[in-house]
## 1
Amino acid sequence: MTPISPLRAQVRSFLRCGSGASAVEFALVTPLFLAMVFGIIMFGSYLAVIHGVQQLAAEAARTSVAGLTDSERGDLARGYVTTNAASYPLIAPAQVSVNAAASPADANVFVVTVNYDASGLFIYSLPAFVPVPSSAIARSAAIPRGGY
């Protein structure tokens, strides 16, 4: 049997030692974990805002059915959005604008478009190592009138 050299014994001892492995694994996994967590927070919040804007547009279009003229329908749609925008927790009513008019393609369809500037949302102040979605959100809802 050949004796083990001191250098070889030291290398074997180093390879078997696991005392720093946890720190190395933590250093490798933490950035990926944080990117996933921030991504979930950012896109979850963003999708909640998109859903809220779409709901506002849909309900405003339904409300506009009660109007007799395009002007009255537009006023009803804008009034609905103004009154109810604050009920969505991530939507700032001051950043909402509404465009309500007859569809250029079909005069019997009334279209309500709600635009939202989400640049003031907290997700845009989070660390930028996760891609940030566009801050301009526009959602539309169309409702036919008459001709049933």
Note: The first helix runs from residue 6 to 16.
## 2
Amino acid sequence: MGNLADRIEKYLKQILEQTEEGYITLQRSVLADEFSCAPSQINYVLDTRFTVEHGYIVESRRGGGGYLRIIRLVVSPFAQFQMTMRQLIGEQISQKQALGLVTRLMDEKILTVREAAIIKAVISRLSMANIPEQDKVRAGLMKYILATLCREDLE
């Protein structure tokens, strides 16, 4: 039947296919009990098989009332644009390049003027004054912003 990670992945994908919302919410401990495994094995599957590159975002809150939310990203023309932009961003992006990207997203009516202003404030040199490797941090932020824009459950 395959290894444990394969079974967990298959199970989660089946549940995602059955939902109309485009996301599922569950508890890590319940899932670990169901598969008779440690919660760290659930984390491994989420970290390796439910990544942005694979078309998912995983939100997590640990603790007694904690949960996992697995969100399937939309496959649309914008998703293709998002993938292209992620490749162009690479491992780091300068403030000037990031501001250009935000402006383009605003010109394409993907972002409102207000959303663009908020993103520009977050990625500015001033907001990252004490952060080492600002261009790497900025690249990570921009990639996450693009992934968030592809989420179905925000519409």
Note: Strands lie at 23-26, 56-61, 67-72.
## 3
Amino acid sequence: MRQHIGGVNPELLPLSKDALYLAQRFLDANLLSSRRLDDVRHVACAIAHQRDVLVNWNYRYIANVRKAEAFRAVAALEGFRSSLEIHTSLEIVEWT
């Protein structure tokens, strides 16, 4: 897997007002509990900054199809257009 890491150009996105707002909407919709605040902020940041792919190791709470659909649905209800796909690092490596 190390040989693939050099080709990845990750971005550090700021936690904008839109991202904080959207994270709170995710919590209000009970997509995750408040104990998972960092996780909802991670997803909200990607959506607020209009990213297409989010890479995350968290299979249980984030990186699964049903959760990704729910995050996009709540985002759409709040006026955010998103085509965000959530994948694990292993899935991304398999693309190369």
Note: The first strand starts at residue 53 and ends at 55.
## 4
Amino acid sequence: MLTEGASLTKSEEQMMDIFWSASDPLTSVDIVNMKIRDTWGNGLVHNIIRSLLKKGLLEECGIERYKTQYARKLRPAMTKEEYIAKLMSAKAGGKESRFKVLLALAKEEENVEEMVSELEEVIQKLQEGAE
């Protein structure tokens, strides 16, 4: 569950992009070894991960042994699209405002017929899930 005011710092967003693009859960050791950024040492990686866990964006899903120590395996608690939707929903405010945001997003789409078709499929799945 995304916590209140859980917008991401630049470093947190970069870290989440790593997790969102990974096919398997990762440990802090994996991330340090990737050498994504020279400034991301072990301590900073742990701080960013701790913050993302607190915000509800990462979840623990096991442990892995590295020599004599263990590291938590982590995975995203939600997809990037779910995070964006929750963030937009929180910023939009009420139900009416969320519908206006959805309308604004729809206006950005170039292929309206394809979008309508995809929306009809989504609506159908939502209706089947409600039954």
Note: Residues 112-130 form the longest helix (19 residues).
